[in-house]
Amino acid sequence: MPDRAGGGVAIRYWRRGKYEARQLAITVNGKKFHTPAYLPSISSIFARITPGPLIDAVAQIGYPSLLVSAYDVYHASDRDRLLGLLNDYRRKGLLFLDSGGFEAHWRRDGSWGFDQYEEMVNTVPADMYASFDKVGDAAISINSADLSRGLRPEAACVSICHGDSPQKLVESAYEIAKRYQGSHPFIAVPDKECGTTLTEKISTIHRLKEKLVDTDALSCLHVMGCGSPIAAALFSFAGADIFDSSDWYRRVIDAQTMRHLDYDHLELIGCECTACTTFQGEDARVIGHNINFYKSYFDSLRSNIQIRGGLEFLTGKFDDRSIARLDELLKEGVAYGSG
Ligand SMILES: [Zn+2]
């Protein structure tokens, strides 16, 4: 059943998977993608590569989406050049502008405020953008949700929620989602605020999903800062739809084990992907290889959901006892959740 979220955004239900997993077909400004989806994020925090080569790699591999931070664009020494690269990327790919709250938090920069954020929302030609937030501050996220959403009605505004405990995070997300009931809101939560263990995070995502579906069946749940392939699969089974992280240019991902390796260990995994065999330079090969990995991994995850597959998707990654425990945990979510 096609439905519109307002502006240039359309969301429709595509497939129902096992547990709480699902596929949504989302179109923003004519760019269509299916969930679960991974957005490669570029952040100046802990970065050893400048944005230029990272944007080039994402474009060269033909990856369909990219996330940049409003804080980083605002503070870029070569802002015009960066905006040029983002404009070029946006002609084909979906560009997501993050709020900058994460970078301001890590840099302890109290000068970052709504005015600078607003300037960037109006400057960067993003298809989707996050609402203004401050890490850990639920009240600011809730209070700025409407103001942020009003800045670019033609784009999709993703409301970031915070809470100083998983329970508070769920309450904050529910409060925002209720306001936008019927308009299929995008709700984002930080991975770190969902809990301290994988089990707690899965339970939090179940509760979030239950509350969001209660307000609007087509509300979309985005887990920010989640780039672990294993966690992304489990969170998808628990009901999350979109993920982003900057892991893809920090360490090498081994597709066999799904573990992260040191940057100079790429040669040890014997990969023959396009990037590993044709890209020049170690940095380009590593980031190209990782982008290729996320592309094919999320394709496989969506295929698994389409056939209503479950934890066999992660066969060989855990021992049987852990698989059985995770299966029980995910079934419990279905028992009290929206399933
Ligand atoms: Zn490779």
Structure notes:
The protein has a single domain (3-336), classed as Queuine tRNA-ribosyltransferase-like (TIM Barrel, Alpha-Beta Barrel). The protein has helices spanning 51-61, 70-75, 79-90, 101-106, 114-121, 138-149, 166-179, 198-215, 229-238, 274-278, 282-306, 320-336, and strands at residues 3-6, 9-16, 22-28, 31-34, 37-42, 65-69, 94-98, 128-130, 156-160, 186-190, 220-224, 242-245, 252-254, 259-261. The chain has an 8-stranded parallel β-barrel, surrounded by 6 helices. Strands 1-2-3-4 form a 4-stranded antiparallel sheet. β5, α1 (51-61) and β6 (65-69) form a beta-alpha-beta unit. The protein is built from 12 helices and 14 strands. With 339 residues, it is an alpha/beta fold. 42% of the residues lie in helices and 20% in strands. Bound molecules: zinc ion (ZN).
Low-pLDDT ranges: 1-6
- How many separate helices? 12
What pattern of helices and strands is seen along the backbone?
A: EEEEEHEHHEHHEHEHEHEHEEEHHH
Oligomeric state of the chains present here: single chain
**Ligand species:** zinc ion
Number of strands: 14
List the helices and strands and how they pair.
Layout: E1 3-6, E2 9-16, E3 22-28, E4 31-34, E5 37-42, H1 51-61, E6 65-69, H2 70-75, H3 79-90, E7 94-98, H4 101-106, H5 114-121, E8 128-130, H6 138-149, E9 156-160, H7 166-179, E10 186-190, H8 198-215, E11 220-224, H9 229-238, E12 242-245, E13 252-254, E14 259-261, H10 274-278, H11 282-306, H12 320-336
Parallel strand pairs: 5-6, 5-12, 6-7, 7-8, 8-9, 9-10, 10-11, 11-12
Antiparallel strand pairs: 1-2, 2-3, 3-4, 13-14
The structure holds zinc ion (ZN).
